[in-house]
């Protein structure tokens, strides 16, 4: 009947709705899992970058200490250079005075020349060390700048990763909500299918009852017809008796 056809169509639609909702729920669940995995990866990346930043800050601190030590050594070298200049000047003056003393100052002249030679060597050594320290200072300056830029880059990466992590977190929460809603739709659709199955059974029973009722009505109609025919026969017989009696 038309009603049973409608019930079957609604039941099929409910089943399709349940299957689609189940598919959506499964997809949402997979998105939740992927989002959670992505969130963990982002968190691990942030932790690693923070560790790198700490290391770079420690390196920068070490470089700064090295720069300060280089400056201190430079100050010592300046003092040594001044001392060498003074020693050289004293040696020259001593040599002049020894030359004036003639034969008696000859031995002192040799000593003065040795002092002058040592002062020159000390001055040359300090000049070389100063050149080395200058290169070290340049290198440390470059290293400090590089670590500062690296720290800024890491900070930017940490910020971006944190923002990404927050977005992934929101996605995971939204997907979880969608998954829960989809599962609720699945449960509701399944209940609807069960309800439509029950309606289908009820309609079948109603149709069967209707068929049985129609059969009973047919039998009753036949019985009534038979009774009518029997009544007519009886009426004819009674009429015959009435005629004979007259």
Q: What is the fold's blueprint, element by element?
A:
Blueprint: H1 2-100, H2 106-245
Helix pairs in contact: 1-2
Number of domains: 1
- Describe the global form: rod-shaped
CATH class reads Mainly Alpha
Q: Give the topology string: H per helix, E per strand.
A: HH
Number of strands: 0
Biggest beta sheet summary: none
Oligomeric organization of the protein chains: single chain
CATH level 4 superfamily: Methyl-accepting chemotaxis protein
- Tell me the helix content: over 70%
Strand content: under 5%
Termini, distance in Å?
62 Å
Q: Helical region count?
A: 2
CATH architecture: Orthogonal Bundle
Low-confidence stretches: none
- Overall SS class: mainly alpha
| Rg value | 56 Å
Descriptive tags:
2 helices; 246 residues; Helix Hairpins; mainly alpha; rod-shaped
Tell me about this structure.
Helix content is 97%, strand content 0%. The protein has 246 residues and is mainly α. The chain has a single domain (2-245), classed as Orthogonal Bundle (Helix Hairpins), CATH 1.10.287. The two termini are 62 Å apart. The mean pLDDT is 76.
Summarize it.
The protein is mainly alpha-helical and 246 residues long. It has 2 helices and no strands.
